[in-house]
Design brief:
alpha/beta; five-stranded parallel beta sheet; about 5% strand; globular
Amino acid sequence: MTVQVSPVRRRQVIDALRRGAVPEAGLDLFAVGLGRFSSAIDEDLRAVAAGDAVFKAVRGEYGSGKTFFARWLAERAKSANLATAEVQISENETPLHRLETVYRRLTERLTTSSFPPSALRQIVDTWFYTLEHDALQAEPELDGPALDKAVESLLAERLAEVSRSAPTFATALRGYRTAVAEAEPGVAESILAWLGGQPHVAASARRVAGVKGDIDTRAAWSFLQGLLTVLRDCGHPGLLLVLDEVETLQRVRSDARDKALNALRQLIDEVHSGRFPGLYLVITGTPAFYDGQQGVQRLAPLAQRLATDFSAEPRFDNPRAVQIRLPSFSVDSLTELGGKVRDLYAAGSPASARLHSLVDDQYLTDLARSVAGRLGGKVGVAPRLFLKKLVASVLDPVELHPDFDPRRHFELTVSSSELTEVERNAASSDDIALDL
């Protein structure tokens, strides 16, 4: 089947796969095995858009596609007009127990269907425009100081709940609007940076805004509430926040790990308490993180909150459960994935017929087996390398060179330098040599 897609979108997806990366968008074009989650995910998105909050834990082995799933979910969220942010958890740059750092990364990665990261300024500007529009709807004759006063009144009204615990959120927004009105872009940018959790903002800008110091963990909780309010008012009914690679907590110092696990437990409780209406919080991790003594099981209250029965066959899993597991890749699913990418590549290519003829499903199966063989027969960690080899070493040459035949002219080679740590660990010295 020929995939109908714009040349720009096609190029962006193919370029990412050629680099061995997960594309930022366009994942619906070649998603495999995720259909089982679609209905439950869409139910969650509707609930979030209606003002509920949802938490979901995603589990999968290394290479099973957790980042792919997260970005596929983000695309569905944007289609429902939610804002999204994907934050990578790491001990040094984004420790989970320091929510102010997580909040800062969130604002840096904040995006919508209309604006790329960081969309914070566009969202705040849209919010003030909305307040002015609402004020004029109520009193069309307002202008000048009277309009400013009406906007200030609406700002205070809509951020009333947030201001009870973090009055500086509203204060900083007022300072930002004043700086914009007085044509001081540098000051406005600095105030916005402070509002986004950036440290070391110039004291002069903080004085203009009427705030002091940096945002701490306690303030970050309330600032997240404020951000959700601003998003809702300017047409985005919720926020999908993905905390990716939380399994890295297993490798940090025990004291930092305990703090991080407890912070995660607190965050889940706050989501379920209704503190963050419109928040869809997703974490991703390996089975070892959820089941091992260096992860979730280390903190009994957290383990209780995430407990999910996976005793049945995967096809009977409940996609509405708090924890969901991603299906492991097989040679068949890799072949299906390769077919989708081949069809996407061939769409609009002048060599479309040759691509389908030379890179048929049997060739894709052989390539999948050969790549998995180079990784110790572990198909589950093969997708990234399989797609990289397929695009860069097979599809590109077939399109570029009319006399190139991958079965005769391509021999699979894998160097240690092109593998991730997980792939390198999986690689076996007894490679399975297949005649391609």
